[in-house]
Design brief:
globular; 6 helices; about 35% strand; about 250 residues; single chain; eight-stranded mixed β-sheet; alpha/beta; two-stranded antiparallel sheet; 10 strands
Length: about 250
């Protein structure tokens, strides 16, 4: 982790945004742009055609794809890349978030701290969309834990009449890598007991009921979690010591 280099990448991404008209006008959002600059400073290694797809980064370590949401869109690209290249999927998580509301005229409210704090386990519901690829050799994951400012546009849509307009990275707090079987437990929610039910897994990750189900299914497909038995009418699970999946 290199916080100074990340801050430099953020400044470059912000300058690019201002050059194109400011917040929300980038074809590429600031968070995605900053991470790409941070992970690969060499311009020639970014936005590289590999067959019929453009990869975010191609360098000596293989291919890196940065995805902030919608992993379903990655399926075809990863299926094409993985037979020939090791691939790292990067999924940024807001471990600390500040909220700023924007009026339709562009006015900004004072920022306030969000009560929600994410962690590396937030990648698991997204990975459900890649279930059929989670056992393919060469696939690894990196979760940057960030402090961000989230700008919400008051447009009468979305939750409570606000739509997320832009997520501006402020600081890199940590990086969580899952490169091999021993790393997989880093993607699991904290505080899991030796054996746990789906309900307990969901509570530890502070998932919604649906996302908890998706997350547990993805964790099982990764080989990070295994079913062991039952407690009454509920299945029991445990954290696996190792796996051959990553």
């Amino acid at each position: 982790m290199d916080e100074a280099r990340f801050l430099s990448a953020c400044h470059q991404a912000m300058e690019g945004g201002r050059g194109r008209g400011g917040i929300g006008t980038l074809g590429e959002k600031s968070l995605h742009a900053a991470l790409k600059l941070y992970l690969e400073p060499r311009e020639a290694c970014r936005e590289v055609w590999v067959g019929r797809y453009v990869a975010d980064i191609v360098n000596e370590e293989g291919i890196t794809e940065i995805q902030t949401s919608g992993f379903g869109r990655l399926r075809e690209k990863l299926a094409f890349f993985l037979p020939a290249y090791p691939v790292t999927v990067v999924y940024p998580v807001a471990a600390r978030k500040w909220l700023v509301n924007m009026s339709p005229e562009g006015g900004l409210s004072p920022r306030r701290k969000s009560p929600k704090a994410g962690g590396p386990w937030n990648i698991l519901p997204e990975l459900f969309s890649l279930k059929e690829l989670l056992g393919v050799p060469g696939l690894s994951f990196m979760v940057p834990l960030l402090e961000i400012e989230e700008y919400r546009l008051q447009d009468g849509k979305g939750r409570r009449g606000y739509t997320c307009w832009e997520k501006m990275p402020v600081r890199l707090l940590d990086e969580v890598w899952a490169r091999n079987p021993a790393d997989l437990r880093r993607l699991l929610p904290p505080g899991l007991p030796k054996e746990f039910t789906a309900k307990e897994f969901t509570a530890c990750g502070k998932f919604s009921r649906m996302n908890g189900s998706l997350a547990l299914s993805a964790a099982r497909s990764l080989g990070a979690v295994a079913q062991t038995g039952a407690r009454g009418r509920a299945y029991l699970y445990r954290i696996e010591e190792g796996s051959t999946h990553v």
